[in-house]
Amino acid sequence: MKKVTTSTLLKMKQEKKIITALTAYDASFAKLFDEQGIDVLLIGDSLGMVLQGADDTLSVSVADVAYHTRSVRTGVERAFVVADMPFMSYATPEQAYMNAAELMRAGASMVKLEGGSWLLETIKGLNERSVPVCGHLGLTPQSVHVFGGFKVQGRDDLQAENILEQAKLLEQAGIQMLVLECIPTELAGKISANLSIPVIGIGAGPETDGQILVMHDMFGISANYMPKFSKNYLKTTGDMRQAVSQYIQEVQEGSFPSAEHSFN
Ligand code: KIV
């Protein structure tokens, strides 16, 4: 079994093969997802919401993410493992270096940071210190209180132009992958077409280079709330392995996300 690496993901973008991704937080689900052929597993700080029951991701610590990264790494043979840097763990470049080192030691092969141009020095520094970086733009959940809620971003022209600009700057600074969350399909398509690195969408329509969902949303077991951009694959299949397999198939053939799961 050939391990997925940054080179694999870049090649997939170049060959227009759609990348499949899910969040994972423990070894058992990581193994199940890996066996079904998922390309990327993210230990998201969404764990604050789906595992710890918080209203947002802000209470998550580096130790929390490191703990779950260690567990996920144990279950994975093929998939590429990305760990989220939680709120305030990369407020300065020095903080980012120390905290990224902890996540890489726990088993991550890349770390993900939320934000735009204020991160350029940090991204360059992480790269120079051998830490691959994934960016995250659009609805960045760590900024939920700045946005005034979990709201779709980039709907007006100025905001859309700004997100595109930030994406280009992040790529120039050295990110090797980008997550776009909750932005209109057209903008996500434009950003994906303008970047040479893989762009993974969540609530960003079908025109990105790949898709990610929070695993609890994909199984339809998130407490109280099902985001519009997600789909309950357990309901349609009745079996966890089949649910994952169906998700992977629909993403690869381009039937998920449909317009019903996207924003304009
Ligand atoms: O924390 C998370 O799970 C994420 C995904 C929504 C991309 O950042």
What do you see in this structure?
The chain starts with 5 loop residues before the first helix and ends in an 11-residue tail after the last helix. The radius of gyration is 17 Å and the shape is globular. Helix 4 packs parallel to helix 5, helix 5 crosses helix 6 and helix 8 runs parallel beside helix 9. Strand 4, helix 6 and strand 5 form a beta-alpha-beta unit. The protein has 264 residues and is of the alpha/beta class. It has an eight-stranded parallel beta barrel, surrounded by eight helices. The mean pLDDT is 97. It contains twelve helices and eight strands. The structure holds 3-methyl-2-oxobutanoic acid.
Question: What is the gist of this entry?
Answer:
This protein is of the alpha/beta class and about 260 residues long.
First-to-last CA distance? 39 Å
**Percent strand:** 5-15%
Uncertain stretches of 5 or more adjacent residues: none
Helix-strand sequence: HEHEHHEHEHEHHEHEEHHH
Main β sheet profile? 8 strands, parallel, barrel
Count the beta strands. 8
Mean pLDDT, all residues? 97
Ions, cofactors and other ligands present here are:
3-methyl-2-oxobutanoic acid
**Largest sheet: spatial strand order:** 1-2-3-4-5-6-7-8
Tell me the Rg in angstroms: 17 Å
Helix percentage range: 40-55%
Q: How many helical stretches?
A: 12
Indicate the structural class: alpha/beta
Shape: globular
